[in-house]
Design a protein that fits this description.
Layout (H helix, E strand, L loop, with lengths): L1 H11 L5 E2 L8 E2 L2 H10 L3 H11 L27 H14 L2 H12 L7 H16 L3 H16 L16 H4 L18 H5 L20 H19 L5 H4 L1 H4 L13 H22 L15 H10 L4 H15 L3 H17 L5
Antiparallel strand pairs: 1-2
Length: 352
């Protein structure tokens, strides 16, 4: 597995964080390294290189460096044109200190910008899980890429300083105010309706609804189960290419838990929840499912469907759902994986 992971990361190393599939200025995130990790997590080592070879032709090259980031690094946050400069920051820091130290130094700084850096945050989490299996130069470089993407796409959402309401995510969803329905429809980029939450005064209180001091694993199980239920009832009305990030980003802390300090854990959980809340408030149209029956399909059959799905989110959602199902065997996860993959076959992106 080590050779497969590193070979795949080396092959993807020269690709940029985003690409323009239609030569129209409509940029999409490069999911290559994240899917590599997801395939390995499902034990699909033999599928990694063939998948990477199919995926790579769509990707763009690395952006150019602009100027070394020194002094007030906050001035360079959220500037995607500084992606390579940010990667250099993390490469330099991880050459001087253990990668866990760099990770724990920066997650509290970057977590508030998860709403803009959703893919950077998820990519960072996948890189950490690959490093958890074994350290190597390509994996440390991939962590620098993930953190660099997170910093370069950093954008915050409103947050009050209210005391925690002490709720679980599934309970807190009932207290959230959503955008008007017309604002939750007709968008092209999911960042557009999420951006409108800055003008929804009540959203500032969303982050503090959840008690992030409770057991992290239990909180993550509740959050991902709640969003799996949302996917089950919304895949026909909301494009799952966007909506699935409430699950994959909301649960991203799970991939890093063994390596996070208490401060980094609390910060990551807080903003994972805020991001999931943002997807709920800005995109969701239908109430989450309350209960589902165990699907007839086995885990292997769900994985097979995900591998055949032309949209990379099919693999990522299926892996996330199966991971959470192993910890909390609620059939909602399996149904969510199945329904999301099948809907992506219809409305997802297919550039093969």
């Amino acid at each position: 597995m080590a050779d497969v992971a590193d070979d795949a990361l080396v092959a993807l190393a020269d690709s940029g964080p985003e690409y323009d599939p239609f030569d129209s200025g409509f940029l999409l995130a490069n999911h290559g390294p994240m899917v590599v990790d997801a395939l390995l997590a499902m034990g699909l080592d033999d599928e990694v290189i063939p998948w990477v070879e199919r995926y790579m032709p769509r990707l763009s090259g690395q952006p150019v460096r602009r100027e070394r980031i020194t002094g007030d690094w906050k001035q360079a946050l959220g500037d995607l044109s500084r992606f390579r400069d940010w990667v250099d920051v993390f490469d330099d820091q991880m050459s001087d200190a253990p990668w866990e130290d760099v990770l724990n130094r920066w997650i509290p700084r970057l977590a508030p910008g998860t709403s803009g850096g959703v893919h950077g945050a998820i990519r960072t989490a996948h890189a950490v899980r690959m490093l958890d299996r074994g350290e190597s130069a390509p994996r440390i470089c991939e962590l620098a890429q993930g953190l660099g993407y997170w910093a370069a796409s950093y954008r915050t959402l409103p947050k009050s300083s209210a005391p925690s309401a002490g709720l679980l995510p599934s309970e807190a969803l009932r207290h959230l105010e959503q955008l008007d329905e017309e604002d939750r429809k007709g968008w092209i980029r999911f960042t557009d309706p999420i951006g409108k939450l800055t003008s929804l005064p009540s959203f500032g209180d969303a982050a503090d609804l959840v008690d992030t001091e409770q057991d992290p694993s239990y909180l993550l199980s509740d959050l991902t189960r709640a969003f799996a239920a949302i996917l089950v009832t919304n895949v026909e009305t909301v494009n799952p290419r966007a909506l699935c990030h409430g699950l994959t980003a909301g649960g991203a802390t799970r991939l890093m838990l063994d390596h996070l300090s208490p401060e980094a854990t609390a910060s990551s959980l807080l903003y994972n929840w805020q991001l999931a809340a943002a997807f709920y408030c800005a995109l969701v149209l239908d109430a989450p499912a309350q209960k589902v029956d165990l699907p007839e399909e086995s885990a292997d059959e769900l994985i097979s469907e995900a591998l055949q799905c032309p949209d990379e989110h099919g693999i990522k959602v299926t892996e996330a759902c199966l991971r959470e199902y192993q910890l909390d065997p609620d059939p909602m996860f399996l149904v969510s994986a199945r329904e999301t993959t099948r809907r992506l076959n219809v409305v997802g992106l297919n550039l093969y």
